[in-house]
Every structure is written in structure tokens, then in C-alpha cells.
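no rush on this but wanted to send it before i forget. what follows is a protein written twice so to speak, once as letters and once as C-alpha cells for the fold. mainly i need to know what kind of three dimensional shape the backbone takes. thanks a lot i owe you, the record is right below.
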Amino acid sequence: MASQTRRSGRRERMALRAAGPSANPAAPGQPGGQYTPLREADMHSIYATALRLLEDLGMGEVPDRLADVLIGAGAVALGNDRISLPRALVQATIAMAAKTFTFHGRDPARSIEVGGKSVHFGTGGAAVQVLDMSTGAYRPSTLLDLHDFARLQDTLTNVSWFTRCCIATDVPDPYDLDVNTAYVLLKNTSKPVATAFTLAEHVDPIVGMFDIAAGGKGAFAARPFVKAHISPVISPMRYGEDAVDVTFECLKHNIPLSCITAAQAGATAPATLAGFLAQSLAETLASLVMVNAIKPGHPMVFSNWPLVIDLRTGAFAGGGGEIAVLNAASAQLSNWLGLPSGVAASMSDAKAIDAQYGVEKGITSLAAALAGGNLIYESSGMTASLLGASFEAFILDDEMHSATYRALRGVEVSEENLGYEAICEAVLGDGHFLGEAQTMAAMERDYFYPELADRDDPKSWADKGAPDAWAMAREKARDVLATHHPNYLTEAQDAAIRKRFEISL
């Protein structure tokens, strides 16, 4: 009887293990901030240099419309076609700026809170090539690819928001490209989404599309579920007129902004890491001043993205220790100022799903998360120094993010978790902890169990055909694309959009 009871208990334990945890032990939104590459004195020095740059050097190529707004807010014309942003103006702007905001999903359950210590991985990028799952070769990306990427990520827990990861190179007209990109976002996911507007005149009609999806005119502005990616500052230290015009239009429609500074070390910013951080911080602060001078307190992600070039060749380098520490330091600075932080990570230079891919993605994404980047862009699916996007990479990166979230969650110490009594019982009893109540509870609560990472012994792995991660991810991606066909637009909404816009899908 005792033997039968033990066998029954063993079967129950095996069934419990196979079922997996009932709660996600590595959920998005874990707290960051454990990694601090900059000392307190370092941050004060970098910030002081940024303030000095904005006040003494100022910003160049300021469009007249923006110049009027900035001077009205306290900026000063320097007389050399540059406008000074005095220290007092910048500090007052930081004080008034939004510190947190809700990034709405069309499904409220998928909304996320941006700011504070929470960390979320999402997408981004403008790849012009896709790693084809059938051929294993790169080819130009299409609108259908973007459609497929959108519905693939809709199933992935750790992609908290979706921004286009590739450009539909088969849609050459800029307006049609913006329209069709926006349509793909609305049709294929109910998560928070982000897009870009090539020109200011594209914003108003596309917001009309958002209103159709939201339920009527003005409904989108009341609860915006799309944010805009804009780069209103061009390094070094000047505004870009087209992006500034887009900013004015987005603010008119209450669209949250990610104002992205994307300087490149050794090219458009200093090669020294400290000098780079000072200039890049100044430039992103210039975006913050602009947004708050136009519309005080408007939600803006302080997207200070340090980028690195290989100084031997001039090519962009998305993976490596330098970009890992720079983006971590950028997140640390933004959080120190109390601003919602955005950085970029997981931008592997690898073309194949190989060891280089894994190392570069793991190092850069973990560093950004540990430093507390609130929104970590480019973090899913990107390859080939942002020139490529991969379906398999989306699957693999999603699992990598779970491991990162588990690391961020850390160790919960309590009297129960310390388990003095459980240790005594095991030592004086069976001599192991297998099957104990505390072990089973910890299995449910504390451990993430990967689906793709192989933990078999070598023989079992060989008996299964010695599969590699790339092949397993490809199989899963194909299965999702074969079975997951969401449509988050009603027939009436879709018809209304198609009546007003040229939809290519």
C-alpha cells in the first residue's frame, strides 16, 4: 500500500511539473535599477555639461514656428541662428514634465504603465530586409511581412507594445506607407502600438482611421492607444524641421510621443562615452523642452538612445559591451531625472541565429533592463545591425525576455521562504526536498521553465534529431502564423477605413 501511495504521489508531482506554473513567475513590468554604471558624481557632471551645452551653445536650425514657442517659454536667441535653452528653463521643464503615463492598449487589459521602476520590452526598428523562413536568406521586407510580424507578436507575452519592425518596401509612396502601416497595427493586435509619420500632413487623416477603430470622432484623443516615434533633434545639437512639424500635429491630437535621440558615437557625437552621454542628454532635453513648451505635461518617453559605430569601418554596431553600457547609463540618467526612460537594446549585428546573436542580445538587453529602462525598444526580432528582422528571432527573444524578467524579480526573502522548518524536516527525514510542499510551491512561484532552451541530456537530445534553437523557433513561428489570424477591427470599421484609405492588404 505504501509503495502504491508513493507511486501515486510521484504521478501527481510529474503531472504538476508538466502543467507548468499557474502564475507567470517572470511577468513583464519587473523593477529595474539594480545596475548603476554611473556614480552619483558622474551623473551630476554629465547633467551639468548637458545644461551648459544647451545654455551656451544652444540649438541650431530652429524652425520659426518652434522658435516663437521656445522664446515665449524663456529661451534666448543667441544672434548666430542658434537659440539658448537656459538652465532655469530646462530645470523647470523637467519639473513639469509627465513622470508616468498609461500607454493604452485597445484592450484595456493589455495597457501598461510607463515610468517609475517598471521595465517593459517592446519592438521598433525600420528593417528593410527579412530573414526568410523558407530559404534562410535575406530579402526585401514587404507589407505582408509586417502583417505577419504583427500577428506573431500578438501571441507573445513579453512584447508589451508593438512598433513596426520592418518597412514595407513594396509600398513606395510615403503617405500610403504610413496609412498601411497604421492599418496593420489596428487589424492585428490589441496591444499598445506605435508608429511614425513621414510628414505632418499625414497625421490628421490617419488619426481619422484611429477614430474609426476607437468608436467615433475624437474617441482616439480621449484614450490614445498609439504613440508616435519622432526624432525632432538631429545630432549634433540642431532641430529637424519635418519632425518638429510632425510633433506639433501629434500634440494637437493628444498622441503620446517617444522623442528619440539617436546619435552615433564617434560620428555625430563624441567617441568618449562620457562626452557622448552629455551631448545625447542635452539633445533629448531639447526635445523635452520643445514638447512641454508646446503642451505642458504631455506624455513623452525620454528616448535617449546611444548608438555606436565601429570606428574602423564606420558601420553601425548594434551589439557589444560599449552599446550595452551606454544604453544602461542612459536609462540610469533618465530615471535619475525622474523621466520615463526609453533605450534600445538587443540589436544584434549577427545575420544568422547563432552564438554571436545570442551573446549580443543577451548582454545588451539584460544591461538595459537591470539599469531600469522603462521601455526597451528594438528588443525583439532585430538582426543584422537593424537592417534585418526575423520571425524566429521574435520567438527566441520572447523566451530570453522571460529569463531577464526573472533576473529582475530577484530573491524574495521571508520567514516562509527561508524555510528553517523545511530544512530540518528534510535533513532528519528523507534527506531530500523532492516532492515537499515548499518545493512544489516554489516550482509554481519562483521558476521559469523555457519551452525552447534545451535541457535534455545529450542522448535524449540526439534521439530527438539534435534540434537547434533556430529550427525549433522556426517551427513555432510557422505554427503561430498558420493558426493565429486575429482581426481587431469589426466588419463595419474595416469597411469604413477601406472607403477612406487605399489599403493594400
User: Anything to note?
Assistant: Residues 273-294 form the longest helix (22 residues). The mean pLDDT is 94.
